[in-house]
């Protein structure tokens, strides 16, 4: 990038920085969703919430089904 181009695009630096941060956050969220350990922790947390009565049996089953489906997909 030349000096002139750098000076002309300087006002866009905050936008470029914000876009880069958003891309990094999206990539980390994707890694988190695909992490088997994370899925197992979320399943354990849902079970704990069900046991203390914070969520209903239907909510627990829905969460369990979704997480187990993701685990099966990752193992395939």
Structural account:
With 76 residues, the chain is mainly alpha-helical. It has a domain at 36-76. 83% of the residues lie in helices and 0% in strands. The chain has helices at residues 3-8, 13-34, 36-51, 57-75. Helix 3 (36-51) packs antiparallel against helix 4. The longest helix has 22 residues, at 13-34.
Q: What is Rg?
A: 21 Å
Number of strands: 0
Task: Please give the share of residues in helix.
Answer: over 70%
Q: Main beta sheet, described? A: none
Cα distance spanning the termini: 45 Å
Q: Count of DSSP helices?
A: 4
Structural class: mainly alpha
Q: What is the mean predicted local confidence, pLDDT?
A: 86
Silhouette = elongated
- Unreliable stretches (pLDDT < 50, length at least 5) are none
Summary of the model, kept short:
It contains 4 helices and no strands. It is mainly alpha-helical. The relative contact order is 0.09.
For this entry, give a set of tags.
mainly alpha, 83% helix, elongated, 4 helices, 76 residues
How do the strands and helices of this protein lay out in sequence?
Elements: H1 3-8, H2 13-34, H3 36-51, H4 57-75
